[in-house]
Amino acid sequence: MDTVDPSLSVAELVAIVDENDNVVGSATRREMREKTLLHRATYIFVQNCKGQLYVQKRTLTKDYCPGWFDVCSGGVLQYGETYEQNAYRELEEEMGISGIQLEHHFSFLFEKFVWGDVWFGSYDGEVTPQPEEVESVHLMSVSEIKERAANGEKFTPDGLMALDKLLQVRQIGPYSLSQR
After folding, report:
1. What pTM does this model have?
2. CB 91 within 8 A of CB 46
3. Burial of 41 (C-beta count, 10 Å sphere; 0-12/13-18/19+)
């Protein structure tokens, strides 16, 4: 059974890139997924004043890792969109969070599949999850995330990789490199 919700635009044009993250064309989201084309995505980590991250439980209709936890917000860049534009747009769409300052940290290549661009912000307040994409939102410490993932709970692998790389350049809550 196909679990992809048709309301998630499979016809949306996304940016296709080369191994150096240069845009080389566009494709529909469906074609990008079917042909495993190298594309761009953002990874937006948001923590509260207690150092907990806003972690999403993805809906079963998502075309990538349906029903899994994701340690960050974010999404695939539309053709013609910048990483920064996407980061702010995705955070507002998925979580209803706007008006916060996001700090850019780095880009990385995940398994020759996606160029990821990592952003970080702080927020204390209510979230409004996008029901088509986010089943629920949970506040979790980095230690809890790592423990739950080690115990077999499903987290998106690219999100965990982005988190590990982010922890190399900044502290999140009380979590430091010595706790890794």
Report:
1. 0.88
2. yes
3. buried
